[in-house]
Each structure stands twice: as structure tokens, then as C-alpha cells.
Amino acid sequence: MALWGGRFAQGPEDSVFALSRSVHFDWRLAAYDLRSSMAHLAVLKKSGLLAAKEADAINAALRELATQVADGSFAPIDTDEDVHSALERGLTEKLGVVGGALRAGRSRNDQVTTDLRLFSIDHMLEIATLITHLQSAILEKAAEYVNDPAPGFTHIQHAQPVSFGHELAKHAHAFARDLDRINDWLTRTSVNSLGAGALAGSSLTLDPAFTAKNLGFDSTFANSIDAVSDRDYVAEALFICAMIGNHLSRIGEEWTLWSSQEFAWAKVADAYSTGSSIMPQKKNPDVAELARGKSGRLVGNLVSVMTMLKALPFAYNRDLQEDKEPLFDSIDTLLLVLPAVTGMIATTDFDREKMALAAPTGFSLATEIADYLAKKNVPFAQAHEAAGKCVSLCESSDRQLHQLTNSELLAVHPELDGEVRELLTVHGALSSRTTAGGTAPTLVAQQIKDALIANTTTQKEIANKQRAFSEMMSA
Ligand code: ARG
To answer: 280 falls in which pLDDT band (50, 70, 90)?
Structure first.
């Protein structure tokens, strides 16, 4: 059903209708559209724009429609343009002309962005919850490996040994920033736009602040033209999704590398691996690869919306209809990837022995020599040079650093005595790195404990917000 037509001599060409139709993707806004219609109805009733009897009949019809949408007994038909027109058809079928009464003081322009804000808040909270689950899987896995040394890398070359628990736990901190971003995004997204009308506000006595409260928004718009034009919250949500995708892709890369035969550190559980149709021996880390691969479309969706918004004139332009599919796709993608990656991490086992054996190789303890000299007040440039000479000596004689003799050490630098050898162990290197946030296992254990406590708090905060949101939806 069309929501316009009075001034037209003929309806749109088939090609035009097909181009402008959005109900096949925006139907998923239906529950939010019905809920925001109830809020608009409450204002019309409160201000006497609708008689109580009419308002109550519309309210009952909206509730009935909500049940029918949920159970699938009311659905869009071929002639419906978008979610708003499909639902108005549903109301009119139940109530006759009264079904159109809700259009007073409301345009699809303030309606669609209200629906989309509600949708975004609902789904970003769901994503936030899944991230906290992923974080706790990471932290619990990390706690198992706090005392297990492994090579730490820069440039994918052995750099310095680290606690493998430290290596794993780092990912939880990246996701903590994503959770922060979602929380911060919420304050800018939880803004009511209903009452802005087409762009200029309304001559009817509406009460946007009342509507904000009704829909659980923290605030209401300050400028009606901005209210119908603003899609910053869509672009920001897409950035957050893309960033989460990047973080997942870096996990994907590590798991792929670590489960390769060359590394053979990670043993990914069968349930999180796939086989090959031709090579019977293959066990592939497809979850990790898809986590890595999906990050591309998340960045793509962000770029798509940013490009659509660039230089867009203010107030509503039909271009804005292009905001939905990228947002839906990014959200669906994360809802798909996050649980799989969480399960993959929780069920992966690591080869402690192999990692420990690899930890000191590649002269990863050379920094200990430089630090030893620096502690004796040797300028670091000189200390670095001396440690480099030790590496070179070892390389040419096929030895490890701790195998250098006292006289060889002294020849490299007069302050370099045999005592340094005590530091040339992985254990010594790890336990000496006591900078806050560093890799000393006692500190790592504490970092993980603190992060788990923060995780529990965040989980509760998100659950409270979700509870409030679903109470608002079912009010
Ligand atoms: N389907 C439209 C959208 O998604 C709804 C708003 C239409 N408004 C209009 N003035 N044509 O953006």
C-alpha cells in the first residue's frame, strides 16, 4: 500500500517501484516500528489529538499486529513499499480509515530513523554480550598458560620470550576497547527523533521528551532538521563492527599460523575444524580463516555508508535508505562469527613443551645482555652493540648465548662478567619483566584476574541495559 498518491495521476512504473521498494530488507524493523507507533499514539492521545476511544482501538490493533508479525501471520505483500507502509496496511485492514490516524504529526523521515536507532541499540547490545563471552573464553584460556613461556614476536621473528598467557590475554584488552566504544556510542544513539516530522517539527502539540521517555531513549533531538538527517550512529556502529572484525581477523591469523605444521603450537578441536574434499588427511582452521576473511565485508559496509553520506544534503534524501543493508549485514556477520570464534578459542589446546623449547631460540635472550649492561650504567647504545657482538660470536660458532665463556664475554665488554649467564634463561627473562602490564608471570596472573573481574562487571551492566530495553519493547 502506498502512503502517498493524492497528487499523482498514475502510480509508479514497475521499475520505479522495484527500485524504491525496501520492505524485503527493512521488514526486520517491524517490531521497532510498531513500538514507536505506540509511543507516537500515546502523545496523540495525551494531547487530545485523538479521542481516547479511537486511540485505544488503534493501540489494541497495534498490539495484535505485533503478535501477528512475531508469529508470521502478518507479512508484507508484493504491493507494500516499505515496513512503514506494510504496517499501515495492516492497521487499516483492521480499523478502516482510522488506521491512517497515526500519520498526524509524524513523517516516515522521523519514523525510520527512530526505528533504526531502536534496532541498532538492541543489536549492538547483543554484540556486546557476545564480546564479553569471547573475552571470558580468552581470559580463561590465558589463565591456563600463565607459566608457560613461548617466543614473543615482532616482524614474526623471535623477539623476546613471553608468558603465553600474556600473549593470549592481550586479545581481551582489544575487545575491552570495543565494549567501551559501544558504551560511548550508546549515549549518541539513544536519542529520540520522533516529533521532528518531515524536517521542521510539527504544528501539532507533540511532546518529544515524553516520547523519549516512553521509548527508553536518554535524550531527545535538539534540531529537527539534524534529527532526520543524522546517520552518524549508523556509521559509528559500522566502524565499531569493522574494528571488532579487525580484532577477530588478527585472532584468525594467529590461529591459522599457530595450527600450521610449521608451528604446530595450536591443536584446534575437531568440532571447530573442517576437512578437505580431496585430501583425507587435511584438518583446516576454517573458523579462523573466516574470522579473518569476514573482516573485509565489515570494512566494506563502513565505507559504503560513509560514501553515501558524503556531501548528502540535509534533511531526508532517499539515498538514506541505503543505510540499512550494510548495517544489517555487519551486525549479522558478527552475530555469526563471534560465537564460533569463542568456541574455537575455548577448545584449543596448545603444545606447552614445543613453545617452551622455542622460547629461547633465535637469540631471544640477547636483550637480557643489553639490559644487564644498562643496569651497570653502560650507555644503552654501547650495551646494545655488545649484545649484538655476543649474538654474532654465537652464530659463527653455532652456540647459544649462555655457552659463551667468561673470557669471551669480557672481551666483548669489560663490564660483561659471567654473572650475566644467570639472566640468560627464559625463566629469568620472564620474571624480570615486572613493568606494570609486563610479561612476568606473577603480574600476568594478576592482569588476567583483574580483566576477569572487569568482564563480570561489564556483563552485568550490559544485561541490565538489555533487560531495560526488552521491558520497554514489551511495555
Ligand atoms: N523506506 C524509507 C527509508 O528507508 C523510509 C523513509 C521514506 N521517506 C520518504 N520521504 N520517502 O529511508
So the answer is: confident
pTM tops 0.85, yes or no: yes
Residue ID of nearest Cα to ligand 1 atom 11: 318
For the residues 83-87, what does the mean pLDDT come to? Answer: 98
Using a 6 Å cutoff on CB, does residue 236 contact ligand 1?
no
Q: What is the pLDDT of residues 143-167, one digit of tens each?
A: 999 999 999 999 999 999 999 999 9
Q: Cα–Cα distance between 386 and 274 in angstroms, integer?
A: 49
Over residues 52-83, the pLDDT tens digits come to 999 999 999 999 999 999 999 999 999 999 99
Q: Is residue 102 a contact partner of residue 41, using CB atoms and an 8 Å limit? A: yes
**Under DSSP, is residue 284 helix (H, G, I), strand (E, B) or coil?**
strand
Measured from the CB, is residue 320 less than 6 Å from ligand 1?
yes
Q: Is the pLDDT of residue 410 over 90?
A: yes
**Side chain identity at 319, as an amino acid letter?**
D
CA of 56 to the centre of ligand 1 (A): 27
Give the residue, by CA position, lying nearest to ligand 1 atom 2. Answer: 321
Q: Give the model's pLDDT for residue 1.
A: 62
- Are 424 and 369 in contact by the 8 Å Cβ rule? The answer is yes
Catalytic residue among 219, 276, 397, 470: 276
Burial label, 47 (beta-carbon count in 10 A; 0-12, 13-18, 19+): middle
Instruction: Return the closest-CA partner of residue 47 out of 223, 203, 227.
Output: 203
CA of 464 relative to ligand 1 center, distance in Å: 33
Report residue 455 CA to chain centroid gap. 15
What pLDDT does 64 receive?
98
Question: Is the Cα torsion angle 173, 233, 207, 59 positive or negative in sign?
Answer: negative
Nearest CA to ligand 1 atom 3: 321
Each residue's pLDDT tens digit, 412-469: 999 999 999 888 999 989 998 999 999 999 999 999 999 999 999 999 999 999 999 9
**Residue 276 catalytic?**
yes
Q: What is the mean pLDDT of residues 234-243?
A: 99
Classify strands 191-192 and 219-220 as parallel, antiparallel or unpaired.
parallel
33 lines ligand 1 (CB under 6 A): no
106 lines ligand 1 (CB under 6 A): no
Q: Is 21 in the pocket of ligand 1 (CB under 6 A)?
A: no
Grid coordinates representing 448 are 588476567
- Sign of the four-CA dihedral 305, 310, 314, 317: negative
Assigned C-alpha cell, 363: 637469540
DSSP E strands, 347-416: 349-350
Roughly how many angstroms between the first and final C-alpha of the chain, as a whole number?
28
219-220 and 149-154 beta bridge pairing: unpaired
